[in-house]
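Translate sequence into structure tokens.
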Amino acid sequence: MVVLSKIYTRTGDKGETALGNGTRVAKFDVRVESYGSVDEANACFGMARLHAAAELAQQIERIQNDLFDLGADLCNPDIDKDAEAAYPPLRMTASQTGRLEAEIDAMNERLETLRSFILPGGSALSAHLHLCRTVVRRAERRCIELAAAEPVNAEAIIYLNRLSDWCFCAARLANDDGRTDVLWTPGANR
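Result follows.
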């Protein structure tokens, strides 16, 4: 359990922060950007959850917990030392991604067939979920950038990829199972 008895520490006042293994890095380090984008996505899900009915709200809450796990995973760069650690760090697992896939499959069964690209919007919940989707995509890009330079748990990137798909399906579900999606009309304003 995490105990936060003091919120400010003054240790970041000069533009550095500590990773999960204690290493100090610049606050603009790509690893910090990666888990910062995950944190931003989590905040977006919090806004979406305000508009969700009970079942979807529970799914979003599980996702928010997963995103904290993902942040913990990304903030600890010592993947190659996991096996020898006295307290192995929290890492994303295939079962978390599998749960998303099962939820996506269930949503897809209800959705109208997509015949056009859709504009982000429609209901308030759908608009918020589309925002979640785009922030998750950014987090995924940052994690891929990080993985090009340093070790990253592959499941973290897979989870983010699947999560953006989950957001897309949930956003369509929030638009009367896709029946009230706002369709893109190519060249409509020429």
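Note: The chain has one domain: 26-79+89-183.
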